[in-house]
Amino acid sequence: MLTITWEPMTLQLKTIFRIAHGASAQRRNVIVRVEEGLGEAAGVAYHGETPERIIDYLQTVQIAGDPLHLVDLLAQLPQTGSRAGRAAVDMALHDLWGKRLGQPLYRLLGLNPAQAPPTSFTIAMDDPQAMARRAAAAGMPIIKIKVGGENDEAMVRAIREATDARLQVDANGGWTREQAAAIIPRLTEYDLQMVEQPLPAGDIEGLRWLRAQNLGAPIFADEAIKTPADILAHAGAVDGVVIKLAKSGGIRPALTMIALARTLDMQVMIGCMVETAVAVTAAAHLAPLCDYADLDGPMLIANDPFSGLRYDGARLLLPDRPGLGVELNN
Predict the structure, then answer these.
(1) Buried (b) or exposed (e) across 266-285, using 16+ Cβ within 10 A?
(2) Per-residue confidence band for 15, with pLDDT thresholds at 50, 70 and 90
């Protein structure tokens, strides 16, 4: 039987992180170890995930077998309960697999890390001028702006005046159909790269209707995309999907979802929650398969105890150490 341990961790954010779902100064995640393999579960309340629920799931996990027989081990994971908890064990098993084989995960997957797209940098909702100052100070070439409130156009306009970066907006489901149809054409005047989750998760017909309006920017679904079935349900309703390990249940399910999205001619963004270098580095190993990356989690955290993925501006630099390549800081 493989040894599984876990440790709750409170992440302190550098600034208040405000989105359409609410605001927070902390996030409570769980670090998971399977033997020497590392994983992370994100306790995101609006996805129904809490540290308590994650730990309840982890207490049900029993894995036996050779760490090199990765598929056999993954098949032993309970499929119900915490999806974030399952993702953490999945990451840890992939990390363990790579460490036992002495190879970084991207190499075992046959991927070229140089093909990873640059990451965006997220600016949470705030006073428009404060958001503009943060965007300018970041100096990043791609800025994702959290919207879904009363000052959306003012926020986007202020950031556009402060930077020539490519802009994305993420409403986190904060608009109605009518609001989205009215505001997206105005926001496209500021040269938008995409609009993420304009409508509440589950309003697939609303997304289909919105996309048919040809409002001038690609529409991506995020919150509702958790399984391959969700991708199938959104076919034709959106231009792309956002895949996150914490939602999908880990690396192996995410690989399936990326392949399915490609089959359906959808674009793919690989994203993250507010997570340490453990989970974000795990996601970055899949970035060469994707069109866009939103992997800025470690940049938002003041007390990340791990090192792994590094940034050259927006460029993702994957570690070449075995497995995920993540280490605990000294």
Answers:
(1) bbbbbbbbbbbbbbbbbbbb
(2) confident
Distance of CA 67 to the CA centre of its chain: 27
Give the C-alpha separation, 179 to 198, whole Å: 9
Summarised one tens digit per residue, pLDDT across range 152-199 is 999 999 999 999 999 999 999 999 999 999 999 999 999 999 999 999
Instruction: Locate all alpha helices (DSSP H) within the chain, ordered by sequence.
Output: 51-58, 70-74, 83-101, 105-108, 128-138, 152-162, 177-187, 204-212, 228-233, 245-248, 251-263, 277-284, 297-300
Tell me the DSSP string of 286-321: TGGG-SEEE--HHHHBS---EE--EEETTEEE---S
All structural domains of the chain: 4-102 (3.30.390.10), 108-328 (3.20.20.120)
Report the predicted TM-score, pTM, of the whole model to 2 decimal places: 0.96
* Tokens representing residue 296 in the block: 């800025």
C-alpha to C-alpha distance for 31 and 39, rounded to whole angstroms? 6
